[in-house]
Amino acid sequence: MTILPKVLSDISTPMHPLTRSDDARSRAWARAMGLEPDTPAAVRLDRAQAARYSGWFWPGALPERYDACADLKTWFFVEDDHNDEGEHCADPARLEAALGAVHRHVFSTPVAHPSPLAAGLADIHERARAGMSAEWIRRNARHFADHWDAMTQAAALRRYGAGLFGSDTDSFMSLWRDSHAFWCELDFIEVGLGRSLPSALYHHPVFRDMGRLSMNLICSVNDIVSRVKDTAESDPFSMLTHLQRRHGCQPDEAVHMTLSLIEEWTEQFLTLEEQWPNALDLIDVSGQDRELALACAAGLRHAFRGSAEWTVTTSRYRQVDDQ
Fold first, then answer.
1. How much of the chain is helix, strand and coil, in % rounded to 5?
2. What is the DSSP string of 242-309?
3. Which DSSP string do the residues of 176-209 spell out, in sequence order?
4. pLDDT tens per residue across all 323 residues of the chain
5. At what angle do helices 287-313 and 251-282 cross, to 10 degrees?
6. Whether the Cβ atoms of residue 300 and residue 211 lie closer than 8 Å to each other
7. I need a surface site. Which of 125, 170, 304, 312 has the fewest CB within 10 A?
8. Helices 134-160 and 169-180 sit at what angle, rounded to 10 degrees?
9. Is 92 helix (H, G, I), strand (E, B) or coil?
């Protein structure tokens, strides 16, 4: 059992009130989209417990917007099984072609007979972008493209050797965050709230730093808990693997170093969240924009804290651990 740093575990972990009642609906949606075609796929989704993850990740979503968020979480588990851990995971050419087809269908040129992954994401995105700005749509498309590019690079590193990646921290951190896909999911904080954050606020340095820290925390807790699974699957984008390459340390030392980073990043996030209202005062943000900006910051906190709660309680990683 992974023990989270106290500064992180002390943060409250609310859950969306629709969490339990929406589970059956989201699984029925997955079956209708062809994302749960057989018993093995159903078992994998059972182990993932996507409903609990969604409830902790987006506890502030409006009831009428929660379904798109919950279905996105289900979709990402299926995508992970198909691409990051499936038959294409060490074949960059095939993976790039498969992911490119999804991106084109969802974000540019729909086709008559899309794959289940493409059809499922297109259905989610059609619901999600209602009421969202053109800037949000472009940003979300870019985040998906960055995620899929990182997945393709991961496939290449699995094929040719992760040692070729080196130990450059700046390059690693960017690809590490993109490979985990959570930028795409953090975009759905705004979907859940029913309105896009104005670009001037989204790109404010304080908010952008909070976003990066939230991403760091989600990814690093995941890397610690899934370390046996990541090793078995030769995941090149793991914080523990990066620290071992960079510092020449042992796995246990890398775990302790990552836990120290988690503590540091949590404290930094909480400091920035406390500064956010003053930052909004300085640029005269008030009314609905201010309420939305504060809610989005709280959403980033709920996302990393809820993700940590799911990560340390899920059975998704136990199958590999027990082997």
1. 75, 0, 25
2. HHHHHH---HHHHHHHHHHHHHHHHHHHHHHHHHHHHHHHHTT--HHHHHHHHHHHHHHHHHHHHHHH
3. HHHHHTHHHHHHHHHHHHTSPPPHHHHTSHHHHH
4. 557 899 999 999 999 999 999 999 999 999 999 999 999 999 999 999 999 999 999 999 999 999 999 999 999 999 988 775 556 677 889 999 999 999 999 999 999 999 999 999 999 999 999 999 999 999 999 999 999 999 898 888 878 875 545 555 667 888 889 988 899 999 999 999 999 999 999 999 999 999 999 999 999 999 998 775 555 445 667 888 888 888 888 888 989 999 999 999 999 999 999 999 999 999 999 999 999 999 999 999 999 999 999 998 887 765 444 43
5. 170
6. yes
7. 170
8. 110
9. helix
Type of residue at 66: Y
Both tokens assigned to 71: 């279905």
Separation between Cα atoms, residue 240 and residue 258, nearest integer Å? 7
Residue among 33, 116, 103, 24 at smallest CA distance from 67: 24
According to DSSP, residue 114 is labeled -
* Pair 38, 116: CB distance under 8 Å: no
Whole-number Cα distances in Å, 122 to 104, 127, 215, 276, 321:
10, 9, 24, 34, 34
Tokens of 253: 């030392």
- 57-95 per-residue burial string, b: 16 or more CB within 10 A, e: under 16: bbbebeeebbbbbbbbbbbbbbbbbbbbeeebbbbbeeb
